[in-house]
Amino acid sequence: LLQIQNEESVILFLVVWTVTEITRYSFYTFNLLNHLPYFIKWARYNFFIILYPAGVAGELLTIYAALPYVKKTGMYSLRLPNKYNVSFDYYYFLIIVMFSYIPLFPQLYLHMLRQRRKVLHGEVIVEKDD
């Protein structure tokens, strides 16, 4: 998978994850110390607006770039017959994971937007019961 590790999409999601985690854990640390600078709070609830979609794009592009290699090598797949009597195809699993972003990403992103509104603007968000 060395060729996949050199994809620009890997650099994209690694940079995004790094900035996200530095921001998140700075927020947690200062919050625990009861000394939360406004900039850290602001960064925690604003950086995600750009970082979240960029990170998802990096992840999806990396998975997509890996698909031909995974299919060719049968990586992490288990074929029948075998002693466990089960079959698992990692290639199709990755495709399912990619499609799972369609319903999951908007839910998580909208949740963060609601949290942002609540924390930064003091708005009370009333959740609907399903």
UniProtKB/TrEMBL annotation:
Localization per record: Endoplasmic reticulum membrane; Membrane
Catalyzed chemical reaction(s): (3R)-hydroxyhexadecanoyl-CoA = (2E)-hexadecenoyl-CoA + H2O; a very-long-chain (3R)-3-hydroxyacyl-CoA = a very-long-chain (2E)-enoyl-CoA + H2O
UniProt membrane topology term: Multi-pass membrane protein
Single annotated GO MF: very-long-chain (3R)-3-hydroxyacyl-CoA dehydratase activity
InterPro entries, per database record: Tyr_Pase-like_PTPLA
EC number(s) from the headed UniProt entry: 4.2.1.134
Pathway: Lipid metabolism; fatty acid biosynthesis
Keyword Cell membrane attributed: no
Cellular component per GO, a single term: endoplasmic reticulum membrane
PANTHER family, A to Z: VERY-LONG-CHAIN (3R)-3-HYDROXYACYL-COA DEHYDRATASE, VERY-LONG-CHAIN (3R)-3-HYDROXYACYL-COA DEHYDRATASE 1
Its biological purpose: Catalyzes the third of the four reactions of the long-chain fatty acids elongation cycle. This endoplasmic reticulum-bound enzymatic process, allows the addition of two carbons to the chain of long- and very long-chain fatty acids/VLCFAs per cycle. This enzyme catalyzes the dehydration of the 3-hydroxyacyl-CoA intermediate into trans-2,3-enoyl-CoA, within each cycle of fatty acid elongation. Thereby, it participates to the production of VLCFAs of different chain lengths that are involved in multiple biological processes as precursors of membrane lipids and lipid mediators.
Protein family (similarity comment): Belongs to the very long-chain fatty acids dehydratase HACD family.
Protein name stated in the entry: Very-long-chain (3R)-3-hydroxyacyl-CoA dehydratase
Organism annotation: Bambusicola thoracicus (Chinese bamboo-partridge)
Biological classification of the source: Eukaryota, Metazoa, Chordata, Craniata, Vertebrata
